[in-house]
What we know:
Elements: H1 6-9, H2 16-19, E1 32-33, E2 36-37, H3 49-59, H4 64-72, H5 79-86, H6 92-129, H7 137-157, H8 162-187, H9 195-200, H10 210-225, H11 241-270, H12 274-279, H13 284-293, H14 296-330, H15 338-341, H16 352-371, H17 373-401, H18 419-436, H19 454-476, H20 483-492
Amino acid sequence: MSITHESASDSSPPSMGDKEKDLGGVRLEAVQTGGHVVDAVELERNFSFLSTLGLAFSLLNSWTAIAEICHVFPLSGGQYDFVYCTAPPRFRVGLSFFTGWMACAGWTTLLGAGCSLGSSFFTALISFWHPDYEPATWHVFMFYVAVIVGQFLLNVFGVRALPHLDRFGAFWSIAGIVTIIVTLLACSSGRYQSAKDVFGTLTNLTGWPDGMAFILGLLQSTLGFTAFDAASHMVEEMPNPSRNAPLVMILAVAMGAVTSWIFMVVLLFCLADFDAVIAAANGPLLEIYYQSTRSMVGSTCLMMFNLTAMMICVGAAGTVSSRMIMSFSRDRGFGHVSRFLSPVHARLKVPVYCLVFCGGWGIVFGLLYLGSSVAFNAILAVAILLLQISYITPIIIVFIRGEKAFAGHSRTYSLGRWRRVVNGLAIAFAVMTSVIFVFPPAIPVTSGSSMNYAIVAFAVVLIMCGVTWLVDGRKNFTGPRDLEERLQMGKNA
């Protein structure tokens, strides 16, 4: 079947009655509705509940507030669809456009962050076995590109294997955590750090007051729990998404929170030399493994659990980011470029152009590293800021509007009287961390290399969003198209 482009390129917006009938595109022929042709997107429902849980667990999704919204509105656009469905009619189109840009930019930069972490594992292992090796900047860049290309090939040609890979990723992560914990505890027997050192000692090398340093330290934890919207973007490829997508979010958070806390506590109990961990050229994780096992082979074997899990995570990030961009492009969120990004390849059944788009931007981010690692780090940090904003926008709307946001929609899962408490805490945390995370990581700031340029990267995204809105969006973006039928498909799948 051929690929159609009309739904993204048609410049005449449909009427309100027409625009709330989308086919969501699961093995359907092109259908004429309201003056435009809906893309016959052919995505298969390959991702079972367990497969999607594996994908989500590898990304450590969170927040029950979004889970409640996703239960009522199981739509692949995620946050920008949620905003459109819950916001007052007067503001829904503009807020949906803004949220869509924040989410798409956040997922694209998050993919770059995952590829960066994955490539750092490779260079760490090489340096570990070859102490005289000093990785040049272009070495790191080549590993980075190799990871990006790898996830691209996986998502294009291995789409049928992705559900199995995600299931394997869930079991691999759990098996890895258990294996690492048991090994470290056994090897460090008799040499544990004291409970006072683990739970009662704060080492602050940032120059900031302890409270501020603690909040800045949440950046890494927040990165681990970012991307909780992953399951919502896979609703067209899973059965019973109105139930499974929010359930995946909640269970993945519970699994991630418990296992990561236990893992961190064990690492702290088993490290032997804190200063050596801080100064380790191979990275702190590999150094802790080595201090505990006192074996290069053993440390490398343990590190393979982390490396493999990270590669699966990168593949999952590529899957979700491409679906996010495909969905937003179908609604003409990227202006004239949308018609090139929205189609799904007729034979491969994947959004190839979206994967090329994400990978291309990832390589651009990598080129920044060749010029300045500071600029590259800003791109990675801004991923959290962008995604936090995309999450908090629908949560704020629900917090303000309450039950009005869900008027006319039945549901079996609800936060009930706890909604304002949960949403309020989510808003407070997101606002606080979004502001704090653009602060310099340490003071005093003695040179440009110690600055945090995340705010600059964020400003660039805002400018691109604003220009696209002025040039095309305010005339042609009308929110999620064919909403009613997509909702029915999501609830009846």
